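REVIEWER CHECKLIST
Item 1: Sequence provided? yes
Item 2: Single chain? yes
Item 3: Sequence as submitted:
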Amino acid sequence: MVSYTVRMRFADEDHQQISEILEKLAAASRQEPGCVFFMPHWVDGDPSTVLIYEQYRDGKSLDAHRASSHFKQYAVGGLYQLMRERTVENLTAVV
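Item 4: Structure as written out by the authors:
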């Protein structure tokens, strides 16, 4: 299992556009056979910050996600163009 979080900060005025991109990215990502969980969140009290929690069956599934047309369209061509900063935390399950 591969799990991680992605935290991105955007301009406040991009909130609606980011929400729309995330809805499309999440819907498409959840259809991938190797995607276990994909959930974007707005951070309470910070309307410019998004946190995405993602899980994939294995590294090959994660690679397939990053190579998908919807990732290229919505993440690379959308979110990455608008974000002001980005951090990733790779996670290791306790159990």
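Item 5: Key structural point noted by reviewer: The mean pLDDT is 97.
Item 6: Recommendation: ____
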